[in-house]
Amino acid sequence: MDFLISFDISASGLKAQRKRMDIISSNLANIETTRTAKGGPYRRKMIVMSTKQLSGSFSNILSSEVAGVQIGDIVEDNSPFKKVFNPAHPDADDKGYLLKPNVDLIVETTNMLIARRTFEANIAAIKAARQMALKALEIGR
Predict the structure, then answer these.
(1) Opening angle at CA 124, ends 135 and 109, nearest 5
(2) Is the dihedral of CA 83, 85, 90, 95 positive or negative?
């Protein structure tokens, strides 16, 4: 297996986790947004990731194709909004209930920690591949 392939795999993981952190930060920034341009409260967004589609035989995949993570779509969470009684709020309905975004601080914080750990794991993999390449060059002297 070529060392550059391992760099490509880790780099795709880094890009995917950076995009995931962008989505999480957008969710956290809009945790209290009750009115959007679409109308209604902010709806939580999620990123869909998948493996890159590889073609060919098993030996071709190991020898030449680049694997990794690809970012699919950014989808909205269809879970129901939180309903809070707040008749003084301008976005409250006629019964005094306010619809708040379906963003949960604990879920977003957990997702942020997972993304951070995954980012760190990809950096560790890049460092390990770099060290192996350097050792291989030393052996070849």
Answers:
(1) 180
(2) positive
